[in-house]
Automatic annotation (TrEMBL), chains A, B:
It comes from the Eukaryota. One of its GO terms (biological process) is carbohydrate metabolic process. Residues 206-522 form the Alpha-L-rhamnosidase six-hairpin glycosidase domain. It comes from Saitozyma podzolica. This is Uncharacterized protein. Coiled coil: none annotated. InterPro entries: 6-hairpin_glycosidase_sf (IPR008928), 6hp_glycosidase-like_sf (IPR012341), Bac_rhamnosid6H (IPR035396), Glyco_hydro_78_N (IPR049164). Residues 39-180 form the Glycosyl hydrolase family 78 alpha-rhamnosidase N-terminal domain. One of its GO terms (molecular function) is catalytic activity.
Length: 536, 536
């Protein structure tokens, strides 16, 4: 047998981790706190045509009311809310006559963030994403009664337990079920008071916004483990794009800075390429390793994440230590501009080019040229602000035509080229690509980058894009965030609140206990991965 | 919801354990020794019409030759021989490009004692026995590479590993697979020398017998855990009938007495009924508990097991301590004889009567009256021998007609009634039931009980039964043993050796590494449980 060309260690083909940065990251690793939580009760999932995701929960009493389960029986335990953590219970046997539990008990457990997870079958599975990520387990317990603790971490509100097999001589009950919620977040945040911005918001809206805020805080807390995880149910990993948003929300809420510092150092410590390019994601387990892919826009957003961190924490040492890492990302991207100072790569939509995946959003029809171009400017402006904050001179980078150009000059050139080639004066908004595609992404990022010559032009572009019948909207909350941030930046606070209520509010209405990675209220079960059950 | 009538604790409906006996048993609990064993190599199972069980192994090289496995791939590791124990390995990921193992790895493992276990699908499963006893596991490993140890004990030669799911970015190899063999047996036994009985046996026969002896010793060693397990693959429990044969073989081979003593005390400590009746089986886990059923013939054989133990070990204290327990079993059974001193119960074939299951063998057509009647005599004779060995007076029991009858008198009466009603002089053999069924069981037990008036009559009965075209043969090695023991007792040593070669030899030919619970060489895949895969 001949072995195919494969690489044994995660580090093969990638530069080795940079020990000094990784060491700092490890020194900032937070403790995880575990909190035991009792269930609310038992439920059945029933079909409900009126529900956005098609299901409603019907109470089946308390856990103490659970019947004795035989082969083929199942039960759904509702823990209320959502947590990241572990599940334990006592597997108690009930015999029907003189026999003790005379054979092992085989169970299947399904962990549900939402009702459809535990109400629907996972087969047939249609995604290209690895099936092993589906949140189910099969266990066999040899001797009963027995305390059981599921070793793998899950993210869940519901646990469905199916009895795959018990012998004819006994049945089982799930007694003392406990969810052990884990997080590194030690702070708590009171409900929104609307103290400073209350008068113009109706009481009804306040209720909606408080509920959205509550779900947002839970999402954030449940993602705060030993890194900011993009989602605690599936890949459980740190990604630059998610890091920036989670840290930013955190500075306004839980105010943790240790985790942000750790994450910034983890990326610095695990470059994707010897040219200094950052990886899009970092693995913590079994050891700290580069994630094996780079996302152009994420490398650029690292600068903004570093700026946010230094601004909030005041930790200038970290800012200085990591400044050149952030600067290098912009330098590499600027290196891909053409003679007109327009970002240009072959096949910007492809995600298989080694180290040149452009993400922006999961929407497959999105033209990304304008977005990426503007994200470069956004990154350069973040670097400029950071250099001022750190008392550094205006940074310079090498470009295709010069070995040392001040970034102020690059910002000017790229802003001018964006206005010249990406702004459509007749439409009054930003477009992207040869087909002049109108999208939220292009306009949000143009506004974030400050490309519009005035706040009025910015606000008009956003408003027109938002209302345009042909506009390409966002699939991920990630891009929805930048639309809202752009609204705020352009002075469109009303639109920001309206959009938050409409978009995040619709997830809450659909039964979200935490916000999802992908969501389109008009296509509730659509998935960027071709199977709704693998979304998270 | 109303709960059905069920009983929470194993002890409900049964008398509590007798602490004094259980304490002695626990003081005799042996240490388990774990030995790491490396695999022989990789194999494929190929169909082979000439093989008794339909399969042959084809080498696929060494474990080091294993290809990188992707979703849907599988591999069979051959450890050679058979052991009871645990399985561990390193799950190594091999990436195809820059990505590390970016999703969990889900594996299915199937543990095979014989090739068909790993070559055939378990579905559709046809047995009434609990499906959870099938020797497979599904595990999900979150972070790779990772050392993996399967927590549950298995009995195996082969391990089939199927990759249920890995992501598109990587494959896996099973590296450093180790079988951790466990047993409480510390002794070893040299191959059969035939020193005292060599001249009349051909070299060819010696080879066959040495191979049978080797498999028998392995079976015994692998069943020697913290009790004599009836089989280490499935129920892993101690049963009286199996105990007697395993201990008897042990006295001639590994010469352990501690385990036998522990097992005798475990039964004494966990009675099935307050009248003193023994349970057929004892559970060790999660705590020492009566097995919840009683088998009449097993309760009677306890006396023989105690006699064997005292004879070999010289431990008269244990003999005296447990004598009344053994005697009580015979007394209860004698209490079921009618006025003609013939054993009589309603529905002797039924196994659902509370505490009155008559086993003898798994063969469903077997008439068991003669066997059980003779086993009572065999038990009484064991008690008589034991009382002599211990220097006790002739024991007395209460019978339906008298409160104190010497067992010598009961033996005499029951032997006479057996000869009068169960021996057919015209056929020259023992029969059973109204249809005068001829069977190995009836004649083996009549000879074991010494019912025949001479060795000649005994030998003739066995020979005729063995050759008779209508005879009901045995399904279990358990009853085959008593046929062979009866052959020896009747002076038919040649027939004993011939039968051992034919029966146990056919299991070896069929690929047995240990002897099975059930086996009919003419119907190789027949099962007392309706599904061959649940035999063990």
């Amino acid at each position: 047998m001949t072995k195919p060309a494969v690489y044994r260690n995660a580090g093969d083909l990638l530069p080795p981790p940079i020990a000094r940065f990784v060491d700092v990251a490890e020194s900032c690793k937070p403790e995880l706190i575990s909190t035991p939580e009792k269930p609310v009760g038992l439920i059945d999932a029933e079909k409900d045509e009126k529900a956005l995701l098609g299901w409603k929960a019907v109470s089946r009493g308390s856990v103490e009311d659970m019947e004795v389960l035989k082969t083929g029986d199942s039960v759904i335990i509702d823990f209320g809310g959502h947590r990241t953590g572990y599940f334990s219970f006592d597997l108690q046997s009930y015999k029907f006559a003189t026999h003790p539990a005379d054979a092992p008990c085989r169970l299947r457990l399904v962990f549900g963030e939402i009702l459809s997870d535990v109400a629907e079958e996972f087969e047939p599975y249609k995604s290209w994403m690895c099936k092993s990520w589906l949140p189910d387990e099969i266990i066999t317990v040899d001797w009963l009664p027995q305390p059981v603790k599921i070793a793998r971490r899950h993210a869940f509100r519901y646990v469905r337990i199916e009895v795959v097999a018990v012998s004819m001589h006994y049945g089982v009950r799930i007694e003392n079920p406990i969810a052990h919620a884990v997080t590194s977040c030690t702070a708590s945040v009171p409900p929104l008071s609307f103290a400073s911005a209350g008068s113009e918001i109706s009481d009804e809206d306040k209720t909606v916004l408080r509920r959205i805020d509550e779900v947002a805080l839970r999402t954030l807390r449940n993602c705060m483990q030993t890194v900011y995880e993009d989602g605690p149910r599936r890949d459980m990993r740190l990604w630059i794009g998610d890091l920036r948003l989670q840290a930013l929300a955190n500075y306004k809420t839980f105010q943790d800075t240790l985790l942000a510092k750790r994450c910034l150092y983890l990326f610095a410590g695990t470059p994707f390429h010897e040219d200094g390019r950052l990886a899009a994601t970092v693995y913590e387990h079994p050891q700290v390793t580069s994630g094996g892919q780079s996302i152009v826009d994420f490398t650029l957003i690292y600068a903004a994440a570093l700026l946010d961190y230094v601004e909030f924490s005041g930790d200038k040492d970290t800012g200085k230590d990591l400044f050149s890492v952030a600067l290098r990302q912009a330098e590499i991207a600027v290196g891909r501009t053409n003679s007109e100072w327009v970002y240009h790569v072959e096949n910007i939509g492809g995600m298989t080019d080694f180290g040149a995946w452009h993400f922006v959003d999961w929407e497959p029809t999105l033209d990304k040229v304008t977005s990426i171009h503007c994200i470069i400017i956004f990154s350069l402006k973040s670097l400029l602000s950071l250099s001022k904050l750190l008392g550094l001179p205006v940074p310079t980078i090498s470009t295709p035509t010069s070995s040392s150009v001040p970034i102020t000059e690059v910002i000017e050139k790229m802003t001018a080229s964006a206005l010249a080639t990406m702004y459509d004066p007749s439409l009054g908004l930003f477009v992207s690509g040869p087909k002049k595609q109108i999208s939220w992404a292009s306009n949000a990022w143009a506004v974030m980058a400050g490309v519009a010559p005035s706040q009025e032009v910015a606000a008009d572009a956003l408003r027109r894009t938002y209302q345009h019948p042909d506009t390409v909207i966002a699939m991920t909350p990630y891009l929805h965030h930048y639309l809202v941030e752009a609204f705020v930046k352009a002075g469109l606070k009303d639109l920001a609140v309206k959009h938050i209520k409409g978009y995040w509010g619709s997830m809450v209405t659909a039964g979200a206990e935490t916000f999802w990675e992908a969501w389109n209220p008009k296509l509730p079960t659509v998935s960027p991965y071709q199977d709704f059950h693998i979304n998270s």
